[in-house]
Amino acid sequence: MGHEATVSRVSEEQLFYLMSRGMREDEAMAMIVRGFIEPISRELPMEYALELNRLIELQMEGSVG
User: Fold this and answer.
1) By the 8 A CB rule, do 59 and 65 touch?
2) Which of 23, 26, 27, 34 sits between 20 and 30 A of 54, alpha carbons compared?
3) What is the pTM assigned to this prediction?
4) 65 is a domain residue
5) How far, in Å, CA of 20 to CA of 23, rounded?
6) Is the confidence at residue 3, as pLDDT, over 50?
7) What's the gap between Cα 44 and its chain centre?
């Protein structure tokens, strides 16, 4: 198999854990998404990684709450 991809939703347990430590829901969601994306963006040239991060932030705006 040449390429595999995994798509999953952020679990309620992950959100609960971070929120129980004082994070707001939007902050917790952003941290989880960044943790998932970071290994991918690390492999990209800097300008692409910055653009990817910017697009993810734009997509997440308003998606929580």
Assistant:
1) no
2) 23
3) 0.66
4) no
5) 7
6) no
7) 16
Q: For residue 6, is pLDDT > 80?
A: no
In a domain, 21, yes or no: yes
| Structural domain includes residue 42 | yes
- CA atoms within 13 A of residue 31's CA, in its CB half-sphere: 14
In angstroms, how far apart are the furthest CA atoms of the chain?
Answer: 42
Q: Residue 26's domain spans which residues?
A: 12-60
For 7-54, the pLDDT digits (tens) are 557 788 999 999 999 999 989 988 998 888 899 999 999 999 999 989
- Report yes or no on 4 lying in a domain: no
Strands of the chain, DSSP E: none
User: Which has the higher per-residue pLDDT, 16 or 63?
Assistant: 16
